[in-house]
Amino acid sequence: xxxxxxxxxxxxxxxxxxxxxxxxxxxxxxxxxxxxxxxxxxxxxxxxxxxxxxxxxxxxxxxxxxxxxxxxxxxxxxxxxxxxxxxxxxxxxxxxxxxxxxxxxxxxxxxxxxxxxxxxxxxxxxxxxxxxxxxxxxxxxxxxxxxxxxxxxxxxxxxxxxxxxxxxxxxxxxxxxxxxxxxxxxxxxxxxxxxxxxxxxxxxxxxxxxxxxxxxxxxxxxxxxxxxxxxxxxxxxxxxxxxxxxxxxxxxxxxxxxxxxxxxxxxxxxxxxxxxxxxxxxxxxxxxxxxxxxxxxxxxxxx
Length: 303
Ligand SMILES: NC(=O)CC[C@H](N)C(=O)O
Known about the structure:
Elements: H1 2-12, E1 20-21, E2 37-42, E3 47-51, E4 57-58, H2 63-75, H3 96-100, H4 111-124, H5 128-140, E5 146-147, H6 149-157, H7 160-171, H8 179-190, E6 192-194, H9 196-202, H10 204-207, E7 211-212, E8 217-218, H11 222-235, H12 241-247, E9 252-254, E10 259-264, E11 268-273, E12 276-277, H13 284-297
Antiparallel strand pairs: 1-12, 2-3, 2-11, 4-6, 5-6, 7-8, 9-10, 10-11
The chain binds glutamine.
The site of glutamine (GLN) has 11 residues, from loops.
Keywords: Acetylation, Hydrolase
GO molecular function, one term: glutaminase activity
EC number: 3.5.1.2
């Protein structure tokens, strides 16, 4: 496995230079683009990695999976009154469907959907970001994880688009808390810094029928776990979910920090990271790395 990961690293490093680091969040634009990491964490607790797998990066939209998990644990089926389960076919920060569809976002992974989920978590926790941070630290087995204040502040300063979505949903009656407070929680969650190893471990419960082996906790039921994986397979990569299904064939979640996590159900979780993005806001080298991985071992949830 180590040799395979090294060969994938060699294959994708030459792609660095062909994408573009996210710059709509100014604090992210200063990241060194010349980095690639990959880590695999198996259901037996084996860890494999290559490249800069221990370099921390901004997890961004990958945090939406942690928020969704916390919301499912508390709200169960009721939450689906407020957010859909269909792919959007639009960029992650698009506003167009929201008005046509009466303020109910298509799915929990586009920004509008994640903001509704953050609103749910805001109603439930006195300190929503700290509850989330605690949850992520446990899942990753790393008590030192924290949010990058510079990134969170930069996101808040340039919040117009996310704020527009949240206020539009409030106008439709699908937002209960103070918009600015929810935006702070949401940006702090997105600004969590983690590395490939942390993320592969933190997502391992989704490969293991909801069970997290290092905490000994059942995070989600087996049924809820397959449901989350289903949503990740259909919407985790936004308007590139179809392309990801075609090339990689696994449930996955990307973030504009350049990380992508993918799940091989009943076997392992994998995280790749390289900061330069393609047009859909997904890591360019990361996509190719996951394709090479699934191809060389012949893994896909589609048979
Ligand atoms: N796709 C992403 O990673 C986007 C997350 C980012 N924090 C935003 O709200 O725009």
